[in-house]
Amino acid sequence: MKILIVEDEPKTGEYLRQGLTEAGLVADLARDGWDGLQLARGGGYDLVILDVMLPGLDGWGVLRELRAGGVDVPVLFLTARDQIDDRVKGLELGADDYLVKPFAFAELLARARTLLRRGRTTVEPTLLTAADLELDLLRRRARRAGRAIDLTAKEFALLELFLRRQGEVLPRGLIASLVWDMNFDSDTNVIDVAVRRLRAKVDDDFQPRLIRTVRGMGYVLEVPA
């Protein structure tokens, strides 16, 4: 499942993105209302976690624009505004739930999963595969040709991204944004090092090789024809 977090406070945004990713979800992060609105309109998200106090366009405005445009994605407000009037306003605008900061991540995750189940029209796969490579999202396990592969949290997130977008060339900047929540710096080789380490675990001792470099563009995971 794919979640959009719209949160301008960097530590909170990263905390949410990392926690949701480690829980087996794909989480993108927008840091202001206008960016959040654009992503929510076209990103195919299953849930939006939305702050109220945002630069540019506040959360009320984001939700109002989404609903006016016919976007019915479930929305969970996550905000420090704890007055009853604020909660009522959010729900009347079309929010599906409202959680006040500070919050326990376990509660947020439970509420998010409830909204995801409620809005789900198809069964979301919990096992991603390519050839004899398997990634179990529930048990957080990877296997290839029946052999267990030990992955770090970042390697797991990177492999999940590759498998979910199988056959799609992923630029380094997109990988940096979705897995590391950082802007890509052409002077750093963090993405290349991470992909090289992942390849060593899932490709070096196996055939066919699944992850390849597309020169000048990025990386792709696909099963050779």
Keywords:
4-stranded antiparallel beta sheet, elongated, single chain, 5-stranded parallel beta sheet, 2 domains, Rossmann fold, Arc Repressor Mutant, subunit A, 225 residues, 11 strands, alpha/beta, 8 helices
Question: How would you sum up this structure, described in words?
Answer:
The protein has 225 residues and is an alpha/beta fold. It has 2 domains: 2-119, 3-Layer(aba) Sandwich (Rossmann fold); 127-221, Arc Repressor Mutant, subunit A (Orthogonal Bundle), CATH 1.10.10. It is built from 8 helices and 11 strands. The strands form 3 sheets. The chain has a 5-stranded parallel sheet, sandwiched between helices. Strand 7 and strand 8 form a beta hairpin. The longest helix has 15 residues, at 105-119. The chain is elongated and about 60 Å long. The two termini are 28 Å apart.
> Overall 3D geometry?
elongated
CATH class of the largest domain: Alpha Beta
CATH superfamily of the largest domain: Response regulator
The SSE string, one letter per element, is EHEHEHEHEHEEEEHHHEE
> Order of strands in the sheet with the most strands?
2-1-3-4-5
The separation of the N and C termini measures 28 Å
Percent helix among the residues?
A: 40-55%
Q: What structural class do the secondary elements suggest?
A: alpha/beta
Characterize the quaternary organization of these chains.
single chain
Level-2 CATH architecture of the largest domain: 3-Layer(aba) Sandwich
Whole-number radius of gyration? Answer: 19 Å
Number of strands: 11
Average residue pLDDT? 88
Number of domains: 2
